[in-house]
Amino acid sequence: MTARRTDAKHRISAIAKSNRNRAMWLAGVVALLAALCALSVTVGTRDVSWSDITAALAGRTDNLGQAAVALRIPRTLLGLFAGSALGLAGAVMQGVTRNPLADPGILGVNMGASLAVVIGIVWFQIETAGAYIWWAIAGAALAAVFVYTIGSLGRGGATPLKLALAGAATSVAFASLVIAVVLPRADIAGGIRSWQIGGIGGATSERIWPVLPFLAVGFAISLISARKLNLLALGDEIAVGLGERVAFARASASIGAILLCGATTAVCGPIGFLGLVVPHVCRLLVGIDHRWLLPFSALGGACLLIAADVAGRIVARPAEIDVGILTALIGAPVFIWIVRRQRVREL
């Protein structure tokens, strides 16, 4: 009896220590995000003074410096929302598929949303922000179902490698279709090509407000799915034995991820690899418990996207590099490293 009590005390002590460490990491990530947001507002192709920054934050745009800061504020907010959405969506997709290679870009979800928006613009003349979002969400959902269906064919079902290959092939095919759809429309081809790179430059409050309700619903569904994802990580048979409806759990969590991916792609374009890199880094910090992993992935995604945006403004002054290019430069080596790891079959 005494030995059991001692073991129980040790377990409780270990859990408390782990939670304290996670809370410390959480405080650190929040502080880093706040610092990056401040940096995003103050750093750019034009140098600004502190007086311009404070005046712009108060709503004044009396000179070029204040106007520059006023443009950076919605850009920073969009980076915060989009990065959080993509980081969280990546963690959810990895949990749903138990696939360490899962990512909105790699699985073709972002490109499916992109193709749907382009078709809507060229063939159906959609113009409103709300229409872009609905078309993007529909395209993301269809792409996710298509890739999962293709990856499930054959022996072994939907293995990580088969899903990654199906997603990569689908992304390439959809990218080609985007070019084919846009090619006859020289009047809009330039704007669509720029949007396809993925970026948050030119953000305005008019672009951000319509997407917030979709992101809010996606965040809520994804975060609520944390317990379901923990059970799915134990395997389908164990999850069923514990009373979880596996199909419903996967479908509900996937809906949250699709909403986040589709809404973000509609306003920013397809930004790849962020949803792959961030969950892996967060998993090293806080472990595999999705109750911690999901919020950490959201915060980490925001940090990475804002940091990439700030770096893109600095390295090519007076021009800028879109965040889609920088996240690809960061994510591609990580993707190769994960693929080359042995025993990379499931989470």
From TrEMBL:
Q: Which InterPro entries match?
A: ABC_BtuC-like, ABC_transptr_permease_BtuC
Q: Which GO terms describe its biological process?
A: siderophore-iron import into cell
Q: Which GO terms describe its molecular function?
A: transmembrane transporter activity
Which SUPFAM superfamilies does this one have? ABC transporter involved in vitamin B12 uptake, BtuC (SSF81345)
The UniProt entry lists the main location of this chain as membrane
Q: Which UniProt keywords apply?
A: Cell membrane, Membrane, Transmembrane, Transmembrane helix, Transport
Annotated protein name in UniProt: Iron complex transport system permease protein
